[in-house]
């Protein structure tokens, strides 16, 4: 996509800019209010962006025209308030609002990405799409997207993922349809069981004649088995813990007893401090410590530990009994009871009357399992997609950080997300660097062919050195670039020097402040407008 011409005006005053080239276009002026921002805002407005003009500019009084080329097709778009007219070599089309215009854009010009919004897959509006390659001058907020309202930053991220080829393979409508089916099947099943209570009876005999009853009893029995099995596992763990404590106590007694002897050649001392006092400390973190260098204290401590060992042994025995009881319950649950013919015949008539309901419930169970399986597949796809999106975001941030460190080794910025937290923001030139890096990396990752447009690309005092670095960086891209900037007095004429020969410099310094629209462009503008209308 190459922008060729921008025209803004009415039957009294107008302005036309048609000096763009395929490479880097840099619009500069020696002061503010020379019309650069009005031109850029008018350009984006003609492409369907929300109006962002200064309050003093009566934008509804003017027509906005943009001419651009996509794959050798020239498109001429004129916007007046909410109406759009699009003219190509083959046809003239009129649209009454942005929604109609975006559908034409998606179908004819090139495909716009689709995202899930309000549980529906929808084509994004230009106001979100344009933020992939456009940064305006005003109301910048690094914590969210521009013009945050209907769209949020999550919508932008989803759009970015779609553009990068991560398909939104989950059909939200289909998911909701499956969930509704599941609710209906379960509701119908509950009604049948309520009407034919014999199908959910706990009488074991009924499981022999009823598929529904058999499954209900099997499910209930399985839950009981799992619960008992979990109890046995926990009891085993508790028994092992008590045995381990008992072993530690026995080891402690052996160590204490080993001190109960006289040494002919010396005495036992602490190697750290030389003290002859040896202590025994209880197991807890802030436990008690006892001096065991005297025989009486050692005897008391040993007796105390023996008592603990007895307690642990009693606890182990109690647990053994509990495990045995649980094992007997498990055997009963796993056993198969013999059912007499008499008991089966007792329920014959009731089961015969419920036969149709039994079959319906069996069929419903099959359908319920199929729907659950489908929803499980959706969840698996969702998790896989989320992981792929996470990897893509990590790749983008890694590229931003890598380029930043390569261009500015001593820099302190660290990009950990495409948006900052609400309580944080980049200030000064850091903000400009953040936006420029995003625009550059978005192109490298998505490989899009759209023009990259940054109004006031040197805002917040981006240094001359950094400016040159970014201009060289963007010059590596094949995309059309449109930047604007306001020069300081000492910088006037800098872009005409040899080092900037790769730039198409468009100078607005001779414009009258706050008067970019002039009567001298009126006739030419009306000619362009008539050409579109015909």
Structure explained in plain terms:
The protein is an alpha/beta fold and 534 residues long. Among the domains are: 2-141 and 425-430 and 472-533, Rossmann fold, CATH 3.40.50; 197-353. The chain is built from 13 helices and 15 strands. The chain has helices spanning 36-46, 98-109, 126-129, 153-163, 172-195, 211-258, 295-334, 341-346, 348-353, 355-407, 429-446, 464-475, 522-533, and strands at 2-9, 14-17, 24-29, 63-70, 73-80, 83-87, 92-95, 114-117, 120-123, 134-135, 279-281, 289-291, 452-454, 481-486, 503-507. It has a six-stranded antiparallel sheet, sandwiched between helices. A five-stranded parallel sheet has the order 10-13-14-3-15, sandwiched between helices. The chain has a two-stranded antiparallel sheet with strand order 8-9. A hairpin with a 4-residue loop joins strand 6 and strand 7 (92-95). Helix 6 packs antiparallel against helix 7 and helix 10 (355-407) crosses helix 11. The longest helix is centred in the C-terminal third of the chain and has 53 residues, at 355-407. The protein is elongated, with a radius of gyration of 40 Å. The chain starts with a strand and ends with a helix. The model is unreliable at 261-267 and 339-346 (pLDDT under 50). Keywords: Coiled coil. This is Rad50/SbcC-type AAA domain-containing protein. It comes from Salipaludibacillus neizhouensis. Residues 175-238, 302-329 form a coiled coil.
In a few lines, what is going on in this structure?
This is Rad50/SbcC-type AAA domain-containing protein. The chain is an alpha/beta fold and 534 residues long.
